Amino acid sequence: LVDLIVLDLMLPEMDGLEIAKHIRRDYVDLPILMLTAKSSEEDKIWGLELGADDYVVKPFSPREVVARVRALLRRTGIKDDLIYGELHIHPQNHSLELAGESVNLTKLEFNLLLALAQHPGLVWSRDRLLERVWGPDFSGMDRVVDARIKALRKKLRDDPEKPRFIETLHGVGYRFMEAE
Prior knowledge:
By secondary structure, the chain is an alpha+beta fold. The chain folds into 2 domains: 5-76, Rossmann fold (3-Layer(aba) Sandwich), CATH 3.40.50.2300; 82-176, Arc Repressor Mutant, subunit A (Orthogonal Bundle), CATH 1.10.10.10. 38% of the residues lie in helices and 19% in strands. It has helices at residues 16-26, 41-49, 62-76, 107-117, 126-134, 144-156, and strands spanning 5-7, 32-36, 54-57, 82-84, 87-90, 95-98, 101-102, 123-124, 166-169, 173-176. The chain has a 4-stranded antiparallel beta sheet with strand order 4-5-6-7, covered by helices on one side. A 3-stranded parallel beta sheet has the order 1-2-3, with helices on both faces.
């Protein structure tokens, strides 16, 4: 089980930015710390936009890197189950139960639900969800989010008119309902 990736951009046989994109595509919540000699502002911005959570330039203080790793782990360390009434989300094994019954979700649906449920009350725009769940290389239409939310609601037996879990804010985005 991997909790965090420390990634150098200048690898002998592979481009670190390409590796970061692949990691981010498959593991949307896995923290990535880029550690590199590339120090221009453009390099830093590019690295962060392609999925790094933090960017450290060589030479560096080992104590600072350890502190940054600890900070990333504190922020992204959601390993416990998320429980919202009868909805139980199990991030470690990508499973979900609703009213005691297992619910089959695709990887994409699970990651979409997890992104929303990890931050109840936070409004997510389509673009932000696309970036977080589909990844920075997604080139399709933003309405794919609406279609996936609709499918997810159906599996959660969540009525969009009276939502228990996922609320639509027209013209703004979606949010996971805070537990009452």
